[in-house]
Amino acid sequence: MPATKAYAAHSASSPLAPFSFERRDPKSTDVQIDILFCGVCHSDLHTVRDEWGGTKFPCVPGHEIVGRITKIGREVKKFCEGELAAVGCLVDSDHTCENCREGLEQFCQGGATFTYNSVDKHTDGLTYGGYSKSIVVDESFVLRISDKLDLAATAPLLCAGITTYSPMRKWKVGKGQKIGVVGLGGLGHMAVKFGAAFGARVVLFTTSPGKTEDAKRVGAHEVVLSRDENEMKKHANSFDFIIDTVSAKHDLNAYMALLKRDGVMTLVGVPPEPVPLEAFSLIAPRRILTGSLIGGVPETQEMLDFCAEHGITSDIEMISIDKINEAYERMLKSDVKYRFVIDMASLS
Ligand code: NAP
Ligand code: ZN
Predict the structure, then answer these.
(1) Does 187 lie in the same domain as 208?
(2) Which atom of ligand 1 is nearest to the CA of 293?
(3) Could you read off the pLDDT of 161-187 as tens digits, one per residue?
(4) Ligand 1, closest atom to CA 45?
(5) Of the ligands numbered here, which is closest to the C-alpha atom of 293?
(6) Pocket flag, ligand 1, residue 342 (CB < 6 Å)
(7) 29 lines ligand 1 (CB under 6 A)
(8) Other C-beta atoms within 10 Å of 74: how many?
(9) Which amino acid residue places its CA nearest to atom 29 of ligand 1?
């Protein structure tokens, strides 16, 4: 296959720069997609800067991919050439383990293949993500998207969307509940939208006073400045569910104290440093702290269909790919409104 243009980091301390590599030729069950837009996730930044350890270079990030199918293998059943399609954080799994059989491929016991920074079983090379012109993926990991939604604003659903939708469904967020969302970034603003769509009362916790109006516009019923201890205390023991999307070290105990008896806090943010937890935050009154990783293929499709039905997309700021390093710096300052999306036409 001809070389695919991309942007890559060559080390944890170098900026992203133009790069080119070869995608595999589509095999019989593969779909080849011309990438039109790719969202920018904070996980891309954690990975290219090797903040979690284990990054292999060169690293082409990007796991919020939407585009148009340009070629299909002869056994492909679900897709046709010319259709829109999407790819999220996963591109392969063993398909046979208990977790895959339950549609939870992200927990594949044989080892899920992530869209970037994984070993590609077909080439023994690395997987390269969506900051590139095209991608080749087995059809079982390709998602259908609606042509009724704005295409660029659909891209972030593939990670920010499913990562917040999945735990909210798992813990049955709905009418009559008071739920909290910590952080108004890419994940956080999607969590607010889903919480409101599921009928819960949504309280947004933010460190950024300037985000109050936006939080209300995307669906929050109330906004709390998390650095104001008195405001925080007013909400003690009152939440059914809290989703924590914060990307940096912060105090979990302050949020645990806001849960009711048997209330649940789900971590989806992945700060690179350990976060301290006091035993009393959990044991009285019997609170639950849990975590969640993206979502499997069936639930990602369910989320995309839910979004199409309810007109839900991400609030985005479109950038050309040469602005990616600036976008990362703004992300570190919590200055994302509320997801950067790369227009891949800018990668010529
Ligand atoms: P993002 O757009 O940068 O949003 C993170 C938000 O966290 C910021 O907008 C800010 O909100 C808040 N924040 C940042 N630094 C903070 C600090 N020091 N103290 C308190 N709050 C702070 O990032 P994202 O793309 O939504 O990703 C968020 C996290 O989720 C990242 O760690 C990412 O790796 C992780 N993630 C996990 C999964 C999963 O499957 N579990 C999937 C995708 C991403 P305010 O300005 O409102 O305070
Ligand atoms: Zn992501």
Answers:
(1) yes
(2) 40
(3) 999 999 999 999 999 999 999 999 999
(4) 34
(5) 1
(6) no
(7) no
(8) 8
(9) 269
Residue 2 has what pLDDT? 73
Q: Is the pTM of this model over 0.70?
A: yes
User: With 80 as the cut, is the pLDDT of residue 1 above it?
Assistant: no
- Residue 11 forms part of a structural domain: yes
User: What's the domain range around 140?
Assistant: 3-159+295-301+313-346
Helices 160-170 and 297-310, packing angle to 10 deg: 100
Domain containing 236 — which CATH number?
A: 3.40.50.720
Same domain? 11 vs 147 = yes
For a ligand 1 pocket test, name from 184, 245, 314 the mutation site with the most ligand atoms within 8 angstroms of its C-beta.
245
Q: Is 191 in the pocket of ligand 1 (CB under 6 A)?
A: no
Residues 11 and 155 in one domain: yes
Residue 306 lies in a domain: no
Q: Measured from the CB, is residue 269 less than 6 Å from ligand 1? A: yes
Tally of domains in the chain: 2
Residue range 59-115, pLDDT digits in tens = 999 999 999 999 999 999 999 999 999 999 999 999 999 999 999 999 999 999 999
Determine the distance separating the centroid of ligand 2 and the alpha carbon of 292, expressed in angstroms. Answer: 12
